[in-house]
Each structure stands twice: as C-alpha cells, then as structure tokens.
Amino acid sequence: MPRSAFLACLILAALSANTATAQSAFTAADCSAFWYGRDDYARRSKLLPRDPGDIAMAKKDEAAAERDGGSAARSEIASSRADMMLLFEASIELNDPQSRDLMNRMTKDCTDLTNALP
Q1: CB 32 within 8 A of CB 65
Q2: Looking at residue 97, what is its pLDDT?
Q3: Could you count the other beta carbons within 10 Å of the beta carbon of residue 30?
Q4: What residues contact 97, with CB distance under 8 A and at least 6 apart?
Q5: How many CB atoms are located within 10 Å of the residue 88 CB?
Q6: Helical H runs in the chain?
Q7: Is the dihedral of CA 15, 19, 25, 26 positive or negative?
C-alpha cells in the first residue's frame, strides 16, 4: 500500500472514531483542522490557491469545538492539522484516489457543517 493511501486510511479511521453529528461524520474540531490544513498546504504549494475564507471557517469551527469540548478541542485540532495538510498533499501532488475522495467528502461535509453553525 502506498504511503499516501495508508495515510488516508489512518486519517479516515481516526475521524470515523469521533462522534458524528446528524449532518456530518466530522466534528467541528475535525473541520477546523481540515481548514487550517488546507491553508497550510496552500501557503507552501503553488498548486492550491490560498483562500482567506479557509482561516475564517477554521476559526468558526474551532470556536464551536471549544464550546463543545473545552480546551481539549484546541489540542485535538493542533494534532490533526499536520495530517490534514498531508491529506491535501496526497490528494493534489500524489493524485492518490483514496485521499482525494476523503478530501472531497470533507470539503463538502465541513462546508455544510461550518455554514450551519451560528
């Protein structure tokens, strides 16, 4: 199994272990890490343009995660952020299909989750 596919499986397994909401399999902490990871990847790669909305969405999700999970949410986000950047790398640079599928699913679900937050 290629490293990128293994990474995608690990990320999916870790995220699947979290409590799912009615609308999404991902939590606000997952989505915050996702948006921060997307911004981190866009900062270092010319293959993905930066979107200032990513940080705004990350902060909105982070605030919701902290309301739900307290200060533990911040460390959960920090520990997942680098993995999310690697997810973008595997999807975009390595063209890994499993990583791309997960990235696309998270983009949709996290957009929906973030937009549903107050």
Answers
A1: yes
A2: 94
A3: 24
A4: none
A5: 23
A6: 3-16, 28-44, 52-69, 72-92, 97-116
A7: negative
For position 22, what pLDDT does the model report?
A: 46
Segment 76-111, tens digit of pLDDT: 999 999 999 999 999 999 999 999 999 999 999 999
Buried b (16+ CB within 10 A) or exposed e, 31-68: bbbbbbbbbbbbeeeeebeeeeebeebbebbbebbbee
Structure tokens at 80: 């997942």
- The helix/strand/coil state of 80 is helix
Name the residue among 116, 101, 117, 118 with its Cα closest to residue 15: 101
Q: What is the pLDDT at residue 25?
A: 83
Amino acid letter, residue 70 = G
Query: Which residues contact residue 114 at a Cβ distance below 8 angstroms, ignoring those fewer than 6 apart?
Result: 31, 35, 57, 60, 61
Give the model confidence (pLDDT) of 27-47 as tens digits.
999 999 999 999 999 999 999
What pLDDT, on a 0 to 100 scale, did the predictor assign at position 118?
87
